[in-house]
Design a protein that fits this description.
The complex is a heterodimer of chains A (70) and B (811).
Chain A (H helix, E strand, L loop, with lengths): L2 H25 L8 H5 L7 H22 L1
Chain B lengths: L4 E3 L20 E3 L2 E3 L2 H12 L4 H5 L23 H7 L2 E2 L4 E6 L6 H7 L9 E7 L4 E6 L6 H10 L8 H5 L6 H27 L8 H22 L1 H12 L6 H22 L5 H18 L19 E6 L2 E6 L8 E4 L9 E5 L2 E4 L1 H4 L5 E3 L4 E2 L4 E2 L4 E5 L28 H25 L3 H14 L3 H20 L2 E3 L3 H7 L3 E5 H5 E12 L4 H11 L5 H9 L9 E6 L3 E6 L2 E6 L1 H4 L11 E7 L2 E12 L3 H8 L4 E5 L7 H8 L4 E3 L4 H13 L4 E5 L5 H6 L2 E6 L11 E4 L6 H33 L6 H29 L8
Parallel strand pairs in B: 18-25, 18-27, 25-26, 27-28, 28-29
Antiparallel strand pairs in B: 1-20, 2-3, 4-5, 5-7, 6-7, 8-9, 8-10, 10-16, 11-14, 11-16, 12-13, 12-15, 17-29, 19-24, 20-21, 21-22, 22-23, 23-24
Helix pairs in contact in B: 7-8, 7-11, 8-10, 8-11, 9-10, 10-11, 10-14, 11-15, 11-26, 13-14, 14-25, 15-25, 15-26, 16-25, 18-19, 25-26
The chains are: A mainly alpha (70), B alpha+beta (811).
Chain lengths: 70, 811
């Protein structure tokens, strides 16, 4: 049962780590604004690849419509 | 007379790709998209060049109209001043500068996206971070690449012009005060949780779970964990109790401090000297619950500001004319005798005399009156008005802080803080409560010391511990916190919870008239003169629907059902009138001078708008400020057990009609300057009246401050409102008697929950005086009593609010 001494120490340390993490988050201002991040996370990072893709799709469409006219 | 502005009506309107408004004046076709003005197109071009058109994909027409925006490039010249920069920035070194701007235009996801991608627009900008709720953006930039002025110009170029006001300039507000409480709560919560864990063996002391060695260890760990709770988390209670006793008063924190103190030292005594388990877990729980209550009470409305004075509203810079040259200088450097220029939509920064141009001043922020006032050359113009129309030149007569309006803030009332709610219900009873508890504790000590000194000490401390008013202390913050939230749902926003108890005690109500009891939307419009044919009505409708002048809007409201006729060649002279051509006849609508009225028999009171065809005056519209719906009933309900006063800055020409509506008991005063209003409310205060002041403009700021409870009424919550204790949405004005009544109800709820917690205390004392209290008993009774009191107040407050119609749902 002596192992409990060590386990208690570990559990207390773990809890202290979480408390420290909470303090750090608080200090960094993570709780100052709790609305904007919910919007921010939905922004897509448009890479150059995806822009190219949309452009090619557009040009394909143009080609199709052109041929349609002909 | 000013130059007219041409208005071109268009039949098939298209909406602007940038701002979504109808393209009325012009329609610019660019990149297969429609733009309503050059400004909007410019923004699109800038964004397109930097590949930021994602802005338009996130929301449809996310921009704001660029029509009204002043595009002078020198208007931010004051930002080059090193002194000004120093005061505005948050942080500065060689590599980067941080600054936080408040940008009122932020309204959608696209705004956030664009402002956080500013670094793609200019290489000098490092990053941008938006706080959507507070409408602020923090920008980090490299001063080597871009200076502050260029940054602000760039922002205004893309349609997000920061509002830089005198208030930003004078002080940096910090929001760190609230964090301390959360840290304390976190520490208390951490310690409480672990102490409960280490106290587990004793909760089951009947069954021998672990050996004796563990018990000792656990007790010592508890002591260790109790140290931060006692010295850090609970420190506010000791401080507050000490200050209160020093002032020869007993507030609620005194019995709490006694309880915490006894718990801690008795537990130390038990653990170290007697080798028994202490009450440390109860101590942790007590402080934890108390702090939760404190935080719950501190609900704040981030979007609202309760302490704005004229500085938040006045501009930072002024255009000064020196030897024919224009120079932009900070407002603080404006001196008497300076000649300044004020353009369309700009504020008059100081009391001055009009030298050149025609002034048409909108005082709606100051007085609540929506109709602009025309001023002639040589007349004095008071600071705080907004010029509508062409640029005017003024000679400054008084320094900005000494004007007719701004002098109000030099009054001593603004220097001292409003007295705190010292006579709150909890503090009223805490003196008696503490006395009774101490009496019982000493009686039981005396009684038992005749038999057994050990039990005597135990009973004495147990009484102090068990009566530690945790449940009692939580009744008030939770009831008030709930009431605060309930009021918020009813569009009545309080600055803090103290206001509720003050509101319950008010016995005198003072109303401002213009803008508070009257409203632009409730204006009474009547027509006098030759009867209008359907045709004339449709011509008038067509003209007024093209104008943004408040009087035009009201006539437009009167002619709601009428279809507009096709009129040509519409021109508007701001502040004077509109002219149009209908079937080659010139039709004019506007002021006496504009239409050319010489002798029209006995005009009615109020604002008059004349109507003429080919120079023949046919009649006039009389527009009087109308009372808001239900004002009569509002005053009737409030006057049941309160005296009502109305103070107005207007002349008394509407006194008779107002008297008819509000009844004979109401006291009315007219022609009151902002300072008169302040003194009037102060005088009421000297007569021991608890005043509730309701006003809307900057001219009521003094009266709002001097009253016990000052409520600012506003048409748009979040827009400018003067400093006050509470902000009420104009649409909820009718509910005011209900709010006042409910503040009394919440006092009763507090009383009832006091009763409940006293019941728990009686049970506790019954066991305590017999020396039968054990740590486990304490550890169970304390949370149960607290939680049941919290549940009781929360449920009753919400249920009663639902019954009274403040809330639409019970929870």
């Amino acid at each position: 049962m002596e192992v409990i001494f060590i386990l208690i120490g570990i559990s207390l340390l773990l809890a202290l780590v979480f408390l420290g993490l909470f303090f750090r988050a608080m200090n960094k201002g993570q709780y100052d604004d709790n609305y904007t991040p919910s919007v921010r996370m939905l922004f897509e990072n448009k890479t150059k690849q995806s822009i190219k893709n949309t452009q090619t799709i557009k040009s394909k469409k143009n080609v199709r419509s052109n041929t349609g006219k002909v | 007379m000013n130059k007219p502005i041409r208005i071109i009506p268009q039949q098939n309107k298209q909406s602007c790709y940038h701002c979504g408004e109808d393209c009325v004046d012009e329609n610019i076709d660019y990149d297969q998209k429609n733009f309503c003005c050059n400004g909007c197109k410019l923004v699109y071009q800038v964004l397109q060049e930097s590949d930021l058109c994602n802005y338009y994909d996130l929301n449809r027409n996310p921009g704001t109209s660029q029509k009204e925006i002043d595009k002078r490039s020198n208007r931010f010249d004051f930002l080059l001043d090193e002194e000004v920069i120093q005061k505005l920035v948050d942080f500065k070194d060689e590599k980067e500068t941080h600054i936080t701007f408040s940008i009122p235009m932020i309204h959608c996801a696209s705004c956030i996206w664009l402002l956080e991608n500013l670094h793609k627009l200019h290489q000098g900008i490092i990053s941008g971070r938006v706080d959507f709720i507070r409408k602020k953006v923090q920008i980090k930039f490299d001063p080597k690449w871009i200076d502050l002025k260029e940054l602000v110009l760039l922002l205004s170029k893309i349609g997000y012009e920061p509002s830089i006001s005198l208030a930003d300039f004078e002080k940096k507000t910090s929001i760190k005060i609230d964090r301390k409480l959360i840290y304390k709560l976190a520490v208390a919560g951490f310690c409480f949780g672990n102490m409960m864990f280490f106290s587990l063996p004793e909760y089951f002391s009947e069954t021998e779970l672990l050996g004796e060695g563990f018990k000792g260890l656990f007790n010592y760990l508890n002591v260790l964990l109790a140290l931060p709770v006692f010295f850090y988390s609970g420190s506010d209670y000791f401080r507050s109790a000490y200050l209160s006793l020093k002032g020869k008063k007993v507030n609620m924190d005194v019995p709490i401090a006694i309880g915490i103190f006894t718990l801690f030292f008795y537990s130390l005594f038990e653990i170290f000297l007697m080798g028994r388990e202490g009450y440390m877990d109860t101590l942790g729980g007590l402080v934890f619950f108390l702090l939760i209550g404190k935080i719950y009470q501190q609900k704040t409305y981030d979007t609202l500001s309760f302490d704005r004075d004229y500085k938040a509203y006045f501009p930072l810079s002024v255009t000064k004319i020196l030897k024919g040259e224009e120079a932009v200088i900070p407002l603080t450097k404006v001196e008497v005798g300076n000649v300044i220029r004020v353009r369309n939509e700009e504020l008059i920064p100081a009391d001055s005399i009009l030298i050149e141009g025609e002034a048409c001043i909108d005082y709606s922020f100051v007085t609540g009156e929506a109709v602009p006032v025309i001023k002639k050359k040589g007349q004095l113009i008071y600071a705080g008005g907004r010029q509508k129309g062409n640029a005017i030149t003024l000679a400054v007569q008084k320094s900005p802080s000494q004007g007719y309006l701004t002098d109000l803030w030099n009054n001593e009332t603004f220097e001292k803080e409003k007295p705190h709610g010292l006579n709150s219900l909890a503090n009223e009873i805490s003196g008696k409560f503490t006395g009774v508890v101490l009496l019982i504790a000493f009686l039981s000590l005396a009684f038992w010391s005749m038999h057994d000194i050990g039990i005597a000490v135990k009973a004495f401390t147990a009484v102090l511990i068990i009566t530690c008013p945790c449940a009692l202390a939580m009744s008030t913050p939770f009831t008030l916190g709930n009431t605060l939230r309930v009021f918020g749902q009813g569009k009545f926003y309080l600055k803090n919870a103290d206001v509720i108890e003050k509101l319950a005690k008010t016995d005198t109500v003072v109303f401002d008239k213009t803008g508070t009891l009257t409203a632009p939307s409730a204006a009474a419009v009547t027509y006098h003169g030759e009867r209008l044919s359907e045709e004339s009505k449709s011509i008038i409708k067509a003209m007024v629907s093209l104008s943004t002048h408040p009087l035009s809007n009201r006539i437009n409201n009167l002619l709601k059902e009428v279809k507009p006729a096709k009129v040509m060649d519409v021109q508007e002279w701001p502040g004077s009138g509109i002219q149009a051509t209908y079937l080659s006849q010139v039709v004019r609508l506007g002021s006496k001078e504009f239409v050319g009225v010489h002798n029209f028999d006995r005009p009615e009171e109020g604002n008059l708008v004349y109507f003429s065809v080919e120079g023949m005056v046919l009649g006039y519209f009389s527009i009087r400020s109308g009372l808001r719906n239900g004002v009569g009933r509002l005053i009737e309900e409030l006057s049941d057990n309160r005296s009502i006063h109305i103070i107005s800055g207007d002349s008394d020409h509407e006194a008779a009609s107002l008297r008819q509506l509000v009844g004979p008991k109401v006291r009315m005063k007219f022609n009151q300057s902002p300072d008169d209003k302040l003194r009037y409310v102060k005088k009421l205060g000297h007569r021991k009246a608890n005043t509730l002041m309701i006003g809307d403009g900057l001219n009521d700021a003094g009266a709002l401050r001097a009253s016990q409870v000052g409520i600012a009424l506003t048409e748009h919550v979040g827009h400018f409102s003067p400093a006050s204790d509470a902000i009420l949405d104009a649409s909820a004005l009718n509910l005011l008697p209900t709010f006042v009544a409910f503040s009394k109800t919440s006092r009763n709820i507090i009383k009832a929950s006091f009763g409940l917690s006293f019941a728990y205390n009686f049970v506790g004392i019954f066991f305590a005086v017999q020396g039968l209290v054990s740590p486990v008993f304490c550890a169970i009774l304390m949370p149960i009593s607290s939680i049941s009191v919290v549940a009781f107040t929360t449920l009753t407050t919400n249920f009663l609010a639902y019954r009274k119609g403040i809330k639409s749902k019970i929870l």
